[in-house]
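Give me structure tokens for this 394-residue protein.
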Amino acid sequence: MSEAKPMILLVDDEACVLRSIKRVLYRETFDLHLCHSGSEALNFLAQNSVDVIVSDMRMPEITGAELLQQVATRWPNTVRILLTGYADMRSTVAAINEGKLFAYIKKPWVDKDLIQTLNQAWDCKRKADEKESLFAKSEARLKEAHYNLQHQHMSSIKVMSTLLESRTTRGAGHSREICEFALTIGEYLGLNEEEQETLYYAAMVHDIGLIALPDQILETPYHRLHAKDKTLYQQHSIWGEQLLCEISQLQPLAEIIRYHHECYDGSGYPDGLVGDTIPICSQILSVVSDYDDLMHGRYYSRCFSSDEAQHFMIEQVGKRYSRTVVRAAIEGIGRLSSTQRMDVSDTPEKSFVLGEGVLDEDIFDDNGLLLLAKGAVIDQRLLDRLQNRLSVTQ
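Here you go.
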């Protein structure tokens, strides 16, 4: 395939000058176009991708300097050359500065110098285009790599969440309920999009450190634990932080998880932080986690009603929680209760039609545990494994 010809635009109000330049260049591999005024040239540039423009200095209406200055602003990738006489040198200097010219050619020109200058201008334009194209491709590859890396990390978080649900008595779907509640509070408090995303994923694995605890502690409500077991239990936020810190991109989540059992009055663990030195996302998770534990009998020996749990939260304002976060939590409970929650066991059975390719949604087993995360690449080996776990329509 032959290389595309560079488009050269020649601008001069004198037709004889344009004919002379065209005659000099007829053997060159240029796609030449002629314009007789600055306004005509601007119209042509608006409709065509010009590589190099050569304009005479002295023209009516729009001078060459004014024309090339507009070209520099509107089409900066077009290489600009000024054709000027000896008497125009002062104006030429100004044009070079304002129009950011590649070169200027003196009248009368030397034919070989004119040809050489145009070839050099085209070479400069071609190299600039190649550089821009390379940069665009590199940027696209970086974006793709970032997306893939982010997807891998999100898949890791979902797997951790599933591992936690299968290891504890909290049941499938528990993490999703926590995430929904936390996100509702975050939105009410005005967290930005990035903060909400971080909060969501931190909520999904906020108690991941619990997997290191023995069953006896996991199955016992917190207030019935012996002092020694409570001390051990209180290490789980540190263990969760240490686990996530192994993945550098998850470190923002790790900090939130470390502090989500801190209390507003400084009586919490593991570091005894006070007031707003506790990260806001950790404060949100503290309220969310406690509310969920109260509702499911993991805090005391019995399950609290929603009203009882909210009353507990209000009583703990200034002690465990800040007034602002409790107000947001109660508002969030009201929002969530307006839409009926569906237990995982009530979810209609779902059949999937799967083939090789990229998964466009999460897949859970009959117990609600995550089998494959959205974005996973499906091959025949995975299809065979899923046959044993799901109702699959081939």
